[in-house]
Amino acid sequence: MVAVRVEEERDGWVCDVSVEHGGQTSTHVVALSRRDLARWGRGDDAAAVEDLVSRSFLFLLDREPPSSILPRFDLSVIPRYFPDYDLQFKR
Fold this sequence. Notes:
4 helices
């Protein structure tokens, strides 16, 4: 389960993410720029941010355990670690 709480900021959003997966629980803080939401998201509001961040965590959880996900990161770093992210999420 992935729960996302979205807060809008001047240049984008900051999300508090709670993950329960395979008996492990973790929390994360994820920044998302407006540019990246336009690139990978399905809309331009808080619901679209929540959707993109949730889908991104499901993507990550298919590849690594919650304990391996950085506790704080910008969503734009995911393709550096997983190049296929951009192909799967590009509009």
